[in-house]
From TrEMBL:
Species, as recorded: Oribacterium sinus F0268
Protein's recorded name: GrdX protein
């Protein structure tokens, strides 16, 4: 069955919650960091997928939050392919600039769980938007 949407994520909570969703396929990349998720998103955009959520849709910087989730669609385009390409390119540049020379912090399990919840809340806020609700829910 063809699913309309794909999550590119390193968040285990997103993977667990949406793995059996009727409309969403989850590309769970546990070993990827924030910037890796953006680069993987770029590769999907180059294959014709479209951004459904902004890659930097939160105030958390790459080294502040270890989790990142981006929703894409092959069938539905909010912006032109050129605009999607520009958004992801600028997002990668911004993330690289913000994380340059910084090491990944070693978070304890409670902090990691909190970051999963933060990433989930950003995603779910987007899913509840009137634009996405009509396609996803």
């Amino acid at each position: 069955m063809h699913k309309k949407f794909i999550f590119i994520t390193n968040n285990p909570s997103i993977s667990q919650k949406y793995q059996n969703h009727d409309s969403i396929f989850v590309q769970y990349l546990a070993e990827y960091d924030f910037c890796d998720i953006l680069r993987e998103t770029q590769s999907f955009i180059e294959k014709g997928y479209h951004l459904m959520t902004h890659p930097l849709a939160s105030n958390l910087k790459p080294k502040q939050c270890p989790y990142k989730s981006v929703l894409l669609s092959k069938d539905i385009a909010v912006f032109s392919a050129e605009r999607d390409s520009e958004i992801i390119k600028l997002s990668i540049q911004t993330a690289d600039k913000l994380s340059k020379g910084m090491k990944n912090p070693r978070w304890n399990e409670k902090c990691l769980k909190d970051f999963q919840i933060i990433d989930m809340s950003v995603v779910e806020s987007a899913l509840q938007s009137s634009l996405l609700r009509q396609w996803v829910m």
